[in-house]
Amino acid sequence: MFSKILIANRGEIACRIIHTAHRMGIRCVAVYSDADADARHVAMADEAFHIGPAPSSESYLKADKIIEIAKESGAQAIHPGYGFLSENTQFAEACEANNIVFIGPPSSAIAAMGSKSAAKAIMEKAGVPLVPGYHGDDQSPDTLRQEAEKCGFPLLLKAVAGGGGKGMRVVERMEDVDDALAAAKRESKNAFGNPDMLIERYLTQPRHVEIQVFCDQSGKGVYLAERDCSVQRRHQKVLEEAPAPGLSEETRKAMGEAAVKAAQAINYVGAGTVEFLYDVDGSFFFMEMNTRLQVEHPVTEMVTGQDLVEWQLKVAWGEPLPLEQSQVKTRGHALEARIYAEDPDQDFLPATGNLRYLSTPDESAHVRVDTGVTEGDDISIHYDPMIAKLIVWDETRDQAINRMVQALEHYRIAGVKTNIRFLHALADAQPFREAELTTGFIEDHRDLLFPKSKLDTHKALVLAAGFVLEQRKSREVISTDPWSPFARQNSWRMNSEYAQPLQLQVGDDIHDLKILERDDRYQVYVGGSVYNLTMRLDDDYLQAVINGHRISVHGNLHNDQLVLFYEGDTFNCTLYKESYGFEEMAGEGSLAAPMNGAIVAVQAKVGDKVKAGQSLVIMEAMKMEHAIKAPADGVVTDIFFAEGDQVSEGAELIAIEVTEEEAG
């Protein structure tokens, strides 16, 4: 077995690989960019090498530099993880040329599946069922338009070299094809260096079911159950599970055998995933093959009891597959939720910030957390905004869902927006519990997945006031006289009752509270009502009784920003002071950058008349494009940035003079 490997990746997957390698007695070499100097994967590795500036194009995508470091460190093999260079044919070839084992398939297999159109042709020849569409080499606009019309609508434009939802567009009408093609090609060229497209019929109620396959160097192959990854946003998976609910054993077997046939058709070696679209009538169609370990591989590990990274290392060393097909068994049900720094209420816009507070559920045989970050780390614009993967297992699907709901309630983050509340609503939604799964699940159930807060606003304000007061008490200066009121921070006054004022800002609203402290309890006045409050604060855990209702929350107070966590929900407020001088980031009729990123295109010029909803600026952040649209009809009066410029969240991009009709 290898004695030392290099991991050409970062974050969660680098930590995941190190965990197994160390268990097997293998030393690990990490690489890191400027942004990752203090990252968790660097601390976990036996040694680490600086590889370049923060942008991945100048660090984690520098194949020559990684090969050089592998040779310098004495690493016998390179594990690419997923993303970055994991499906790069030239990198696999460079490893082979330098006598370094690439822990993945041969470069020929990556090349065969790297082009989605070429992959379709190979699968068709191997007898694997395909979705109708166009997978040809002729990429002229006229040909693509003709093929789009021939395919029929709705259709899916998909980057030939793509993945992760990038370079993909669903098109409903012929008149939208040109704009969608231009956007998808541009996004694909930026992300993969290849603008070529393929066209497929877009199934309206499909499920995304994929098969984990493994092949060894002798050509033997097995499949390790299937995963359902239907719950997606922007064609990116959000919640995955194994096994896929509702599949017959016949379908499961047919799909698995088709997947192994697909892998063997390209002389595959190592871990791979064959993805299928599964239609309502039980038919399934080859979609693509990912020639690497998948983000969602832990759900397969949980139901099979196998360590897939260990399998990768053994197969790369030349050992046979650890199990025959007849020995592969599954038990129970597993789910994985991807915890992202993003704002679901703003169309899942990626978020950046500092993880100033991070508390995760306790790990056990039922709960697993795969992460690459620790409290205090920054989520930057340079990499994918995934914070962690939360994986749960139990005997049945219902029990596993309950585990997931509970675990999400115990996952608490402050300092950056996350999708935890959304994931909680998703896992607990009745249609999900009943396995009514399609790739359109999120759009079909938006009302259920974006619920109102579980906390009554007044009760939340009372709890917020209680948390602030109890935390202040815990930080009081200890007096030589423990009963002296003079060192306390509760606005105590001699010979009078004094209702302490407190202003809390929630969104744009400022709430005036008055708090009267009496012995071991408080009276809180808010919105014309009075609330009797008793409570106890242990670190970040507040146990309170409000007018006889016992309720418990966790909280984090930092620089006057307070976040309360309650049953997967959050309540955010600010201790308001007049001196803060709160201002709007951008005035009426202007467009502000919703996140840090780069300007890809400016689609207007000064003097243009624009309509509400018209796309004016295309921004790129975290490898995804985002259209910034006109808030109202008007005339462009100023443009403050140009294509290629880097902008910060809140920066004014374009000023618009709103027309009289719109303004009035």
Low-pLDDT segments, ≥5 res: 489-496, 578-588
Q: What's the total number of strands?
A: 39
CATH topology of the largest domain: D-amino Acid Aminotransferase, Chain A, domain 1
Described by the principal axes of the CA atoms, the overall outline is: globular
Quick recap:
This protein is α+β, with helices and mostly antiparallel strands.
Topology of helices and strands:
Blueprint: E1 4-7, H1 11-23, E2 27-33, H2 40-44, E3 47-52, H3 63-73, E4 77-79, H4 89-97, E5 101-102, H5 107-114, H6 116-126, E6 133-134, H7 141-151, E7 155-159, E8 168-171, H8 177-192, E9 197-201, E10 207-215, E11 221-233, E12 236-242, H9 249-264, E13 270-278, E14 284-290, H10 297-304, H11 308-317, E15 333-340, E16 342-343, E17 349-350, E18 353-354, E19 357-359, E20 367-371, E21 378-379, E22 386-394, H12 397-409, E23 412-414, H13 420-428, H14 430-433, H15 441-444, H16 446-449, H17 457-474, E24 500-506, E25 509-518, E26 521-526, E27 529-538, E28 541-546, E29 549-558, E30 561-566, E31 569-575, E32 590-592, E33 597-602, E34 609-610, E35 615-621, E36 624-629, E37 634-639, E38 646-647, E39 652-658, H18 660-663
Parallel strand pairs: 1-2, 1-4, 2-3, 4-5
Antiparallel strand pairs: 6-9, 7-8, 7-9, 10-11, 10-13, 11-12, 12-15, 13-14, 15-22, 16-17, 18-21, 19-23, 20-22, 24-25, 24-31, 25-26, 26-27, 27-28, 28-29, 29-30, 30-31, 32-39, 33-35, 33-38, 34-37, 35-36, 37-39
